[in-house]
Amino acid sequence: MPLRPLKASLALRLAGLGLAVVWQGCGGEDVVVPPSDVPGVVDVTVTTAGEAPDPDGYLVRFDTLDAAVGSDGSARFPASVGDHVVTLDGVAANCAVQGTEGPSRTVSVASGDTLAVGFAVLCNPTTGAIAITTSTTGRLQDPDGYALAIDGGTPQLIPVNGTLTIGGLTPGTHAAALSGVAANCRVRGDNPLTLTVATGTTTPGQFQVTCVGQVSQWTLVDAGTTADLTDVWSSSPTSVFIVGETTTSRGSRLASVIRRFDGTQWTEQFRQSDLRLRGLWGSGPGDVYAVGFDFFAPVGRMLHYDGSSWTEVPGFVSGSEQLSFSSIWGSSATDVFAVGGAFDGAFDRALIYHFAGDFWQRMLVTGDFNPSLTDVWGVSPTDVYAVGTDGEPDPQAGVVLHYDGNVWTTVLHHPGLAPNGVWASSASDVFLVGFQADEQPDGNFKVTSAIWHFDGTTWAPMSVPTGSLVLEEVWGSSPSDVYAAADDGILLHYDGFQWTPAQQTDRTLLGVFGSSAADVYAVGLSGRVIHGTP
Predict the structure, then answer these.
(1) Closest C-alpha among 525, 516, 429, 459 to residue 486
(2) What is the pLDDT along the chain (534 residues), one digit of tens a residue?
């Protein structure tokens, strides 16, 4: 094996030794040589919040380098050691960079650094919205809702009771139009609505719609009598009862009559002289009551129909008072109230009898006011109203009594008011009709028609069309479908907003009742009967 030259090996070792010497300084101290600068990285992130973000994103500028980013995006830039400027451009007018630093930042990059720079942008809306609410009252409401169009655009479905919000509307004035309203319904107030929209806000608007019963025409009915009809009651279009009084064949005495319509013809079911019947009510076609008083004797009179014949209900006699019934109502066949007056020789007092399924019992009325009663109606056995007149004060005063299941209490006492009828659809929807008599400076009295309404908290008078002086009776099928019979032959109707004449006849109307919103009768003097139908 050949030997490696010693000179060559020694030379290499000496060369290495010499290299080592280069890194040693005098006295043994080290000499530090700094390494070269290493570039860094800057990561820029943009986040956007708000209702109308910038649609085309932004431009991130790093010194002289540009990069496009979305509304929520990022860009990476290589960076030399030192200071650099990062700027966010292209921000829409409705947007703003959040924070005190604003859209431009100065960052310092050290050798090999990775820096994160974040921009938070908040965008305000550029449009507004409209929130339309529909409120529909009455029976037979539109089953398929309505159509709502903004500025004549494509209609959108909105329910009969609900809210539809339409956004993306430019600031300014817009028109909201409601269509598709059924023939028996009408929009109350302006249609279309003119609404002003502001940026970033929702402008409310409301349509109030009233749907009335299907009564669209009134027909004069020949009921086969010329009696002065005081009341009407029906359970269906084929079971209608009317009551009134007429003279006997010789014309010397009064006689009360009861007639019934079976859907085909009217027949007389009852006739009796010297009897004055005033009110009707039944729980069904085989359970009907008629009440009144004897013309000559001081007794209250009550008749009952069992589906085949009318019989007298005895027991309404008082030795010290003259009793008379004027109205009857019940919540069921075993919960019936009959009201009227009890004349004690000086004043008429309240007369109330109650039937609880077994016998009739007189009810006690206490308090400062004890009026003679003209009508009764309720919504349940523990929510009943009776109206009448207190004759003791001067002037006399109208009184409303309320029964809560335990006692009768006075809930309204108003001077000059004379209530004739009361009807309620609920505890917060009660109507009273009659007239108001106010004494004038010359001593005469001014008589005006009167309608009061109770909303569950307060009794308040309602605006009544001019013309009628005395309102005799009230009945309705719903809070927005109410009728009032007037002495001048006018039948008034309330649609939930206002009272208007519904029908004009040539005879005083004394009673009104319906088996439904589409089957209504009104009766009056000289055998006047009108029938409301679709």
Answers:
(1) 525
(2) 443 443 444 344 434 434 343 334 444 455 554 555 789 999 999 999 987 788 889 999 999 999 999 989 999 999 999 999 999 999 998 899 999 888 999 999 998 889 999 999 999 888 999 999 999 987 677 778 999 999 999 999 999 999 999 998 999 999 999 999 887 788 989 999 999 999 889 999 999 998 877 788 899 999 999 999 999 999 999 999 999 999 866 656 789 999 999 999 999 999 999 899 999 999 999 999 999 999 888 899 999 999 999 999 998 988 788 999 999 999 999 999 999 999 887 888 899 999 999 999 999 888 788 899 999 999 999 999 999 999 887 778 999 999 999 999 999 999 999 999 999 999 999 999 999 988 888 878 788 999 999 999 999 999 998 666 799 999 999 898 899 999 989 999 998 889 999 999 999 999 999 998 889 999 999 999 999 987
Largest CA distance in the chain: 172
In which element (H, E) is residue 8 found?
helix 6-22
Helix (H) or strand (E) holding 532: strand 529-533
Locus of tokens 């908290």: 457
Residue labelled with tokens 């007298």: 312
3 state DSSP class of 320? coil
| Residues paired with residue 412 on neighbouring β-strands, in sequence order | 400
Q: Which residue has the tokens 């009318």?
A: 310
Sheet of 254-261: strand order equals 228-236, 239-247, 254-261, 266-273
Backbone angles phi, psi at 19, to 5 degrees: -65, -40
Contact 503, 475 (CB under 8 A): no
d(CA 424, CA 512): 14
Phi, psi torsion values for 6, nearest 5 degrees: -65, -35
Number of residues that this document lists for the chain: 534
- The terminus-to-terminus CA distance of the chain in angstroms comes to 133
